[in-house]
Amino acid sequence: MVMGTATFSVVTSYSRQTIRSLIRGDQIAVDGRIKGGDYYHHSINLGGGRVADFGGDSKSDAKPRIASIEEFTDNGKRKLVRINYMLGQCLSPEEAARNAKELVKKPDRWGS
Length: 112
Fold this sequence. Notes:
It contains three helices and seven strands, in the order ββαββββαβα. By secondary structure, it is an alpha+beta fold.
């Protein structure tokens, strides 16, 4: 699946082995559906079964947070995909993970 200059690779099964194949800093997403269409909810894999994403119990309390991979995938019920970028198109994986963790610590930086 192609999105602009990035491609999606579907992580075909939700298992510990599959999750271990993700590297720290990978941009990952899960599929979802809202009124009016389908969407992908994105996050940054932090390793150790954790992701950084923008979420919460409702839109009004959504903020950068750290969640477990189980929570992010709704215990494996949502299809997990890895976003693949061509070399040089984005931050290095480690820099992406560091920035994501920093944003969780300082959410006022969101959008700056």
